[in-house]
Amino acid sequence: MRAATSPPSLVTLVLLTALSTLTLNMFLPSLAGMAEDFEAPYATVSLAVAGYLAVTAVVQLIVGPLSDRLGRRPVLLAGTAIFTLASLACALAQDVWVFLAFRMLQAAIASGYALSLAIVRDTTPARQAAGVIGSISMAMALAPMLGPMLGGLLDTVLGWRATFWFYGAAGAVLFALCWVDLGETRKPPADTEAAKGQGLRSLASAAAFWAPALCTALSTGAFYIFLAGAPLVAQAVFDVTTAVLGFYIGSITLGFLTGSFLASRLAPRYRLSTMMLAGRIMACTGLSLGLGLALIGIVSPLSFFGATVFVGLGNGITMPSSNAAAMSAMPRLAGTAAGLSGALTVGSGAALTSLAGIILTQTSAPETLLTLMLGASLAGLAAALWTRRLESIADRADRSESLA
Question: Which of 334, 353, 333, 357 is nearest to 345 (CA)?
């Protein structure tokens, strides 16, 4: 067993992140069967997705500040324990509303991703933290690719409840792993904002937090817009099968995996804002080329999805550094920053997804979708430039102090 103050291994942090992601989408192939089993409308059962996302935003707002006050270890242990018990209750539920109630409690595992980032920042300097977060982000890319496949297999062989038994077993194993491997990494808050419970208020007035946090949220927003509109484009314009559609949708995730790998190698060598800008420029360039081709009448699966894959690649490069920068605004409030940034990302993603659903039509789908994605990516670029400006101001202030 590790010492009470030793940091956890990277494997533990990767597994916490992966389970946080798997809990969102692994059971998606079972939704129709669950509606039939519960004798409930599909719209009601689908609250297991939309409602869960909303609750995860609230959970991150709570667990971040709480971990700054009480520590990362007790909050993560509590989160995994609640998730494990809620998963078992979901597997046993005979009523759809009972199921949904415990499904919302499963959102406690959202603490795994947010606090994994905070732990990395607790134990690693900012640039190196971006590299480690890049490695963790690769789990975020693989989990949503493999999760529905595993969930579909379990559903086919054993029924939809098997997925929630899997969640329960995975939660129990992860709880045990955290118990033996996850030492406390948060430094005592003493008389800081965290000790006084004023972390959210302090971050709310810190431009050094908002600039990179908005960059993360807007970059991810382009991905959410893609998820909302890609099925319409693929089926209405390209007339592809669902199997091919799955491949095309997976291409953006493959781009994110590649970008995260590059970030894990390159981020320690460059300033955080440099990596953020590199990713935003890559995303905007790819989307601009795709939109330009669409406007002159060249619309094909290769040109469209070839453009959108740059969003995944750019996000993979940008987000490890933007996350590290947000948590570096006030290092003593890394947990609060991770939670608030995560909630901001989920909230803005939900809003942009809804906007895309309202605006998109079959006749203008490719051009409109690329325009919306480009708009979000350009806004993310503006946030990255804001981060660069704040970084330069801080550097000049540090040089002035050293000369004085």
Answer: 353
121, pLDDT greater than 90: no
DSSP 188: P
How crowded is the C-beta side of 8, counted as CA atoms within 13 Å? Answer: 31
Report phi then psi at 115, rounded to 5. Answer: -80, -20
Give the separation between CA 369 and CA 355, rounded to whole angstroms: 11
Cβ contact 335:197 at 8 Å: no
Do the beta carbons of residue 302 and residue 30 sit within 8 Å?
A: no
Residues 244 and 241: their CA atoms lie apart, in Å, by 5
Q: Mention every residue, 6+ apart, whose C-beta is less than 8 A from residue 168.
A: 84, 85, 87, 88, 91
Report residue 85 as tokens: 């018990």
φ, ψ of residue 153 in degrees (nearest 5):
-65, -45
Range from 159-168, 195-204, 282-291, 351-360 that averages highest in pLDDT: 282-291
What gap in Å lies between CA 102 and CA 1, rounded to an integer?
A: 32
Of 72, 161, 55, residue with least CA distance to 121: 72
Q: Is the pLDDT of residue 224 over 90?
A: no
User: Which DSSP string do the residues of 151-178 spell out, in sequence order?
Assistant: HHHHHHHH-THHHHHHHHHHHHHHHHHH
Mean pLDDT of 33-44: 83
Give the percent of the chain with pLDDT over 70.
90
Residue 62 is given by DSSP the state H
Helix axes 301-328, 207-236, angle to 10 degrees: 160
For residue 106, the 8-state DSSP code is G
48 neighbors 319 (Cβ within 8 angstroms): no
DSSP 3-state of 214 = helix
Task: Answer whether 355's CB lies under 8 Å from 88's CB.
Answer: no
| Alpha carbons 50 and 354: distance in angstroms, whole number | 12
- Residue 402 burial class via C-beta count within 10 angstroms: exposed 0-12, middle 13-18, buried 19 and up: exposed
In SS3 terms, 278-297 reads as HHHHHHHHHHHHHHHHHHCC
